[in-house]
Amino acid sequence: MTESYKQVGLSEDEYNLILKQLGREPNELELNLYGVMWSEHCGYKNSKLLLKMLPVKGERVLQGPGENAGALDIGDGDAVTMKVESHNHPSALSPYQGAATGVGGIVRDILAVGAYPVANLNSLYFGKLEKAHQRYLLAEVVKGIADYGNCLGIPTVAGEVHFDDAYEGNCLVNAMCVGLTRSEDLKTAFAKGPGNSVMVVGNLTGRDGMGGASFASQELTKESEENRSAVQVGDPFVEKLLIDACMEIFQNENVIGVQDMGAAGIISSTSETASKAETGIEIDIDLVPKRESGMLPYEVMISESQERMLLIVKEGKENEVNKIFHKWDLHAVKIGNVTDDGMIRVLNNGIKVGEVPAKSLTNPPLYKKDIIKPEYLNYIELLDYKDLPEPDNYNKVILIMLDNHNIASKEWIYRQYDHMVQLNTVVTPGSDAAVLRIKGKNKAIALTLDGNGRYVYLNPEKGSEIVIAEACRNLVASGAKPIGVTDCLNFGSPEKPDIYYQLYYSIKGLANACNKFNTPVVSGNVSLYNDTEYGSIYPTPTVGVLGLIEDLNHITDIKFKNADDCIYLIGNFSNEIGGSEYLFEIHKFVKGKLPELNLDIELYTQNAILEIIRNGLVKSCHDVSDGGIAVNLAESAVTGNFGIDVSINSNIRKDIVLFGEHQSMFVISAEKKNENKIVGILKKFQTKMSYLGSVTDEKIFKISVNGNEIINLDLAQISENYKNSISKMF
């Protein structure tokens, strides 16, 4: 077959392997099936071996990687399911539909494990907002997320947004969803029981999303921008009906297996469910409900039309399933049966048009490349801080920092999302983490989604450890114990040695931290080939972390609550500012050593904070991260609408003290009478605390360092820069 394998994204070696496995040449349909299933997006052929480094088991893990979503036990028979996935390439080409269908797809992953979706989160990375195209991308992506999620009645409760030139040609749109169910009601994606029926439910199949999996496994080029047919089109109203219909059908035992039809559509859902169960599936594509006429067999099989699910239904129970879906005005059509021969067999009006082993589709060749340290890492850490001039006006610096789009309030974005629907959201966007109550129970879950591409670029292993540590700190500051992780690994082309090095050491760093914090990775996604003519993106692992709050009284946020409360600093200063927002915004550098992170000290500090919160000793808690302690104090002051009068003592340079992104550090506010109790708890965990000052009724923001007042601003001025920086761009 000449070189047609190249057109579906296969290499010559891969094509020869297919010939060996089949003992013959594949026809056009079969070749297309291998093209999508052996793509990086579906097959993880450059990452699967590396992912084995990640811890995936733990006492709370009910369901780990390999299913549509992971599941964690939160007690009382309740299970929380979670998954994050990328929709980067589609969003770069068609930002509204790319983002909207990213939400739809991740929601169906949660639905496919039998859970009701209760929260959405997102992680977004763009180029600088000063450029018109980046403002267009942000506005359309946010609108797509809002329109789809709001229509579904699922609150969008948390996330992150970053702006950097590294993402100018290839924005990142990562969508996360969290669901809730009973442990015994979890569903799996197994096509068990030869003779049982294979049914397509939900929306019609069309040509939208053709080859989306292969498209997402290639670099973005000017030519690929013309391939808009690879971008799916969503309909949230159909998805809402699909959610309700599925939750009703799951109440009986007629459904044996469930699989979302996401990347690669019917072929991925059939081959994956059959392969897991070591069975086969025979389908007739003539039976698939279509919205377009004249669709070719391969088009039906690889279409990524949205709002569709694959159900494995007990033989003889098809009519009962039909009735429920038709009640919701949705299609539910039997298209085939489970077989016992291990083959994916495709018929067209009863005539066989393709047949391949299910396991051959789901087991592509796996690659592990040489790990070669990039040249840039030999000099990127070199930075002599003595050569950097210290600011002569710290009032000006703090205002510039708060006006920085990476630090400024993201309210313009999240106010477009409905974060209160379902009435479970206790802590809303703008704090360290979102908190959702579990209805009828004295417990809650805390959620965060975090990344830091600049850190991981400077030091892939240590930067990735910091990403996990920061996400866990966000939960701990909210009163939650971190219990599990879902990750989305956004990198450039693994065929480039420097990118493969970044990928290897980033996963190693994630594994180091997850092992230390006992937070197994229960689900995730890998998004490679995020490259354009501008180059590769920063290596950007984003991590969604789930925390458990076992008493609603322990819920904490970042707001200062009362005048005269004392402000305390937990932790020690680091003398490094590499990768910091301050270094980039004020000195225009992306270099230097990262702030030191000791995982043991981090764990002790997090456990100390949790015990202080659980003893009811704090009014607010906020971890120190982007922008350092000066930004941390400003955020708590602005959101609480209180002034502060703070004095910090340190022998480190003032700018590094104020704007260094020191690890294992929190700022708490508490009543003076609780100080001795707090100190007693901290001693148990060998953790240091310093008194900084107090919350004030006076709407003035004052910070002194070593007895010298260097910041004195009206709270209104601080608030203006922080709250309106992004909105004024539009």
Explain briefly what this protein structure is:
The protein is α+β, with helices and mostly antiparallel strands and 730 residues long. The protein is 34% helix and 24% strand. The protein has three domains: 1-38 and 187-364, PurM-like C-terminal domain (Phosphoribosyl-aminoimidazole Synthetase, Chain A, domain 2, Alpha-Beta Complex); 46-176 and 412-528, 2-Layer Sandwich (60s Ribosomal Protein L30, Chain: A), CATH 3.30.1330; 370-408 and 558-730, PurM-like C-terminal domain (Phosphoribosyl-aminoimidazole Synthetase, Chain A, domain 2, Alpha-Beta Complex).
Polypeptide structure, described:
The mean pLDDT is 94. A hairpin with a 2-residue loop joins β27 and β28. It is globular and about 85 Å long. The longest helix has 21 residues, at 132-152. 59% of the residues are buried. It has 730 residues and is of the alpha+beta class. It folds into 3 domains: 1-38 and 187-364, Phosphoribosyl-aminoimidazole Synthetase, Chain A, domain 2, CATH 3.90.650.10; 46-176 and 412-528, 60s Ribosomal Protein L30, Chain: A, CATH 3.30.1330; 370-408 and 558-730, Phosphoribosyl-aminoimidazole Synthetase, Chain A, domain 2 (Alpha-Beta Complex).
Keywords:
60s Ribosomal Protein L30, Chain: A; seven-stranded mixed sheet; Phosphoribosyl-aminoimidazole Synthetase, Chain A, domain 2; 730 residues; alpha+beta; 3 domains; globular; 24 helices
Write the topology of this structure.
Blueprint: H1 12-22, H2 28-37, H3 40-43, H4 48-51, E1 61-63, E2 70-73, E3 78-86, H5 88-93, H6 95-111, E4 116-126, H7 132-152, E5 156-163, E6 172-182, E7 197-202, H8 212-215, H9 236-249, E8 255-260, H10 265-277, E9 280-284, H11 297-302, E10 308-313, H12 318-327, E11 331-339, E12 343-348, E13 351-357, H13 358-362, H14 394-403, H15 411-414, E14 425-427, E15 434-437, E16 444-450, H16 453-458, H17 460-476, E17 481-490, H18 497-517, E18 521-527, E19 531-532, E20 535-536, E21 540-549, E22 566-570, H19 581-587, H20 599-614, E23 620-623, H21 628-640, E24 643-648, H22 654-659, E25 666-670, H23 675-684, E26 689-696, E27 700-705, E28 708-714, H24 715-724
Helix pairs in contact: 6-7, 6-9, 7-9, 9-12, 14-24, 17-18, 17-20, 20-23, 21-24
